[in-house]
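User: quick one
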Amino acid sequence: MIKNPNAGPMSFLGFFSLSLSGWLVLAFLVLPILIVLPLSFSDSRYMSLPINSLTLHWYQDFFGSTQWLGALFNSFSIAILSTVCAVVLGGLAALGLSHERLPGRRFIEVLLIAPMIVPAVIVGVGMYFVFSSLGLTRTFGGLVLAHTTLAVPFVVINVGSALSGLNQRLLWAAASMGATPWICLRKVTLPLIAPGLISGGLFAFATSLDEVVVTIFLAGPDQRTLPREMFTTARESLSPVLLAAATIMVLFATVLLVLSRHLTHRKENAV
Amino acid sequence: MTMIALPLPVAARKNYRALWRAYALMAPLVLFLLITFVGPIATLLWRGVADTELPDALPQTALALKQWDGRSAPDERLLQPFAQDLRAVSSKDLAAVARRLSYEAPQMRAMLTAAKRSVDSLDGSAQAFATLDPRWLTKETWQTFKRATGPAGSFHVLSALDLKHDYNEGIVSKGEEGLYRSILLRTFAIAAATTVICVLLAFPLCSFLDRRTPRTRNLLLLLLLLILLPFWTSILVRTTAWMVLLQDNGVVNTTLMYLGIIDAPMRLLYNRFGVILALVHVMLPFMVFPLLSAMQSSNKLLIQAAYSMGARPVFTFFRVYLPQVLPGLAAGALMVFIVTLGFYITPALIGGPGDQMISYYIAQFTTGTLNWGLASALGIILLAVTTLLYLIQARLARGRSQGTH
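Assistant: Done. Structure below.
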């Protein structure tokens, strides 16, 4: 906001209180995560401050238990498979959607984005009904299908926005020089929308890695994922191993965030 | 639309091929979503209105019930087909009917079992039923039956709103405690409180960020990254973090005790306070981004103009500044409200039994007590409210983007 030229001598108070409240809210946002994660290195099993001595004990527990390691492995394999499915299906659909005067385009768009908006519990219950009659509950494949469904809107949106920024003249130029649509797609469109595809894939990966509600409905005892394991553990009792798992998840989230920032940064520089 | 009416030039034939190609590209995903998304949602909608147990198991009774007006005394026109059906029905199908009827009247399970056991003595006369159990001749019993004659009906949806269909007075409130209405109210209250607090916290934060001059742009980027980090951190991780902070010997309690503000640990976990605190923390970034973009695109010259004409700060804020950021504020607040309505994980971990929201009960009825009709009906209500609010939100967001261009 603009400084009031008629402001009296006390106006610095207003600015001061605004800055103070701004920093306080920022602290509220960031501090809980920044305080809790170091507790996973604390010796005390009560997860309280101050930290007396540091230990990697809880990480040893995490990486020493087949239960947590299995969950980590499951999470990653499901995330990778559903990312691949979401990028292929979502990328193709986004290419189709980019056609401007398509009858029913808005309707299809809403359908493709809807899994992102409908509350997770509703998707979970509906999938539970349908998947159990198809014999897909308690299977690895069922979870991959479910995660793909939830992740695909992010791919459609990211690739769609990359396509809308695509310079049409490049395609005309290629076509005018005799390139077939297939060559156009492979040599012109795909390289230009690659950042959109990759960031959509990162979003899809992060979505699958985080997803817990639908997983609770569909997963059997053999499909424990890391968030599901954290949820059931947190329901029973709090333990520092949980914080170790949380720290590992934050680490992944940060890596994904930095990667996606890096991509958008490069895109801005290229323009 | 007008395109079709025009005579097609030769080049347009190629356009048709492009159209088909576009549809073909979308087909795999659309088919995929039909199975994994549209099908499940449709199944949920159907199960919320389906009432097939009774017509499947007792077909003749169901037909007779359709003829009955629900008000006159039950007579042999109902009892006769019922006695016949009872003889033919398998015990598995009868158990399904008993379960469905017991949602409304728990005594029906025992009545049906007893009737099936002594089915040979039931010749369909009122006398025989009366000797078995006088309740078989009451209107209430058969009204319960009639409400279950399906194959589709409003029973589950009405139950989810603590309503029932009465054959004399139409749709009436159930006499007992408003169980599900209080769950709905609680869900709305928690979401509303979360939204209001998010607005109150996001406003100073965004004005503070909006004041950054180009000189401090790098600091702004760093601060935005700080807001993005919790946004990217899993909800589960953030909820666990709050559980650790708020527990009896957690960081918050020990700090307050160390500072001498309290003597004994306060109970911060497993109550409404903890739930709303954690929800606000989870939802705040959803509020910050639309509000900040509205503030950044607001016209600051107008404020300068107001000041130059001697307007006081409070007047300037409410009459000049607030109207400019209000659409962004409303869009963000609605988004927070919508997403909070459907929350499951955070209240399940941080709340007590009295702080669970509608999603918890949907999950509970689906996998716990197996009352799929009621689970689906609650799901329909949540879906309807979410869709309605989302349409309003989309309109607000669209109005905003048109306004700035």
